[in-house]
Amino acid sequence: MPASRGLLDRWFHLEAHGSTIRTEAVAGLTTFLALAYIVFVQPAVLGAAGMDFGAVMTATCVASALATLLMAFWANYPIAVAPAMGHNFFFAYTVVVAMGVPWQTALGAVFVAGAIFILTAGVGLRERLITALPPMLQRAIAAGIGLLIAMIGLQWSGLVVASSGTLVTLGDLGARPTLVALAGLTITAVLFARRVPGAILVGMLITTVLGLGAGVVQFYGFVSAPPSLTPTFLQLDVAGAFAPRLWPVIVIFFFLALFDSVGTLVGVAGQAGLMRNGVLPRARQALLADAVGTVAGATLGTSTVTAYIESATGVAAGGRTGLSAVVTALLLLLALFFAPLVRMIGGGYAVGEGIMLYPVVAPALILVGTLMVREVRHIEWDDPTEAIPAFLTVIVMPLAVSITEGIAFGFVAAAILKLATGRGRELHWLIYTFAVLFVLRYAFLRG
User: Fold this and answer.
1) H/E/C letters for each residue in 120-142?
2) What is the mean pLDDT of the chain?
3) CA-CA distances (angstroms) from residue 300 to 231, 235, 295, 296, 429?
4) How far apart are the C-alpha atoms of 411 and 89, rounded to whole Å?
5) Which residues of 171-198 are buried (b: 16+ CB within 10 A; e: fewer)?
6) Is the pLDDT score of 96 beyond 90?
7) Which residues lie below 8 Å from residue 347, measured CB to CB, with a gap of 6+?
8) CA proximity to 345, closest of 198, 152, 201
9) Which residue from 209, 296, 301, 313 lies 20 to 30 Å from 15 (Cα-Cα)?
10) For position 370, what pLDDT does the model report?
């Protein structure tokens, strides 16, 4: 065995996880391509808050790479960390635009929420929450994330579109980006069914070529200089974040980060077979990685980072160790120099005012969703106290487009049903605590 391979095996335990350097590299690249859109979506979203596009892009790449490397070396998990979708919209449109809070102060609130996680790491709140999750909620969270990923993929492909009468309906199957996405989904599904190594990655590359031919993927070139960080670096206003009216904002940032990261870790780790008797080993290290990343991101100039659900694409491609996360982190840094190429693969195609489709990424998300939803087979559907909370968790995630909201409904339903049937002792006290907090959040914070 070559010395370099032996070192990597000792550090990441490749053999113990039944993986290889090639498999991890393909998985890391697959995860990167699945999340590459955030490199461009994040600055576009935060641009609505008045932040500099180029600076946010650089901050996003650097903060994500840092947090993902921490995930790799501290926890040895194939999970990438990047700015969370939903969190960024809350940051830009609710806090800055609607509330009129300067983006510098909003970054200060993100910093405070991340710092609270770091300062309370010794208490082990988040890892205790993972341990407290009953099996039915663990499985429901994984399946719910799968449906959420698939729903996003269906929307980004144009297969599902908004409808005033029914909320959603079938899109235009004759539209060019939708046809490309359908072709990519078909090709990727066939490759996966035939157990072709790196099927998702190969499918994405083929779909890119099809997209170029159809004119829905634009060729922007290959190399460009990294944008400057100066407009956002160290511009956060931490003192201003402690204003009384911003306390609820910090609480919401805290809640979103808490449950999105816990939910994603449980879901993706479950898919990868990394859970041990309902316990996630090295949970504290994994959760600390995104907390440090959030603090670093706020300092650099981007919103909350968290474990990314797109990591499921890399797991589906065979990723089982932190080596795949290292590959993803290095590619995030390289993206600073190859932004035009990343934009070509992970970029979108405008089909209307404010409507973007992502025909290359969408097929991978749909396929990953089908793989993750299989966790529902392990749920005790004959027991209403198990089935109803699980179902609400699964169904609310994609419909509310939020991991946190799905978990909230599951927690509250489980607490009510277990207590009402005299089986309250079957749940950990933390479940009841957070169920009450969720109810209070909906009653008073409304965010």
Assistant:
1) CHHHCHHHHHHHHCCHHHHHHHH
2) 84
3) 10, 8, 9, 6, 38
4) 25
5) beeebbbbbbbbbbbebbbebbeeeeeb
6) no
7) 37, 40, 217, 218, 220, 358
8) 201
9) 313
10) 83
Residue with tokens 């949970």: 283
Residues 41, 46: Cα–Cα separation, whole Å: 9
H helix intervals, 71-198: 87-89, 103-119, 125-132, 135-157, 176-193
The rounded distance, in Å, linking the Cα atoms of 405 and 86 is 11
Which of 166-175, 216-225, 299-308 has the lowest average pLDDT?
216-225
Q: How far apart are CA 97 and CA 163, in angstroms?
A: 26
Q: Is residue 284 within 8 Å of residue 34, measured between CB atoms?
A: no
Structural tokens at position 371: 């793989």
- Please provide the distance, in angstroms rounded to a whole number, between the alpha carbons at the two ends of the chain: 54
The mean pLDDT of 251-258, rounded to a whole number, is: 76
pLDDT number for residue 375? 77
Q: Counting every residue, how long is the chain?
A: 447
What distance in Å separates the CA atoms of residue 132 and residue 135, rounded to the nearest whole number? Answer: 9
Structure tokens at 133: 């999750």
pTM assigned to the model: 0.72
- Going by pLDDT thresholds of 50, 70 and 90, the confidence category of residue 234 is very high
> Span 188-199, mean pLDDT?
83
- Structure tokens belonging to residue 169: 């309906």
Q: How confident is the model at residue 66 (pLDDT cuts 50, 70, 90)?
A: very high
Q: How many CA atoms does the CB half-sphere of 102 hold within 13 Å?
A: 12
Rounded CA-CA distance 52/175 in Å is: 33
Q: Which amino acid is it at 174?
A: G
Q: Look-up: residue for tokens 């100066």?
A: 230
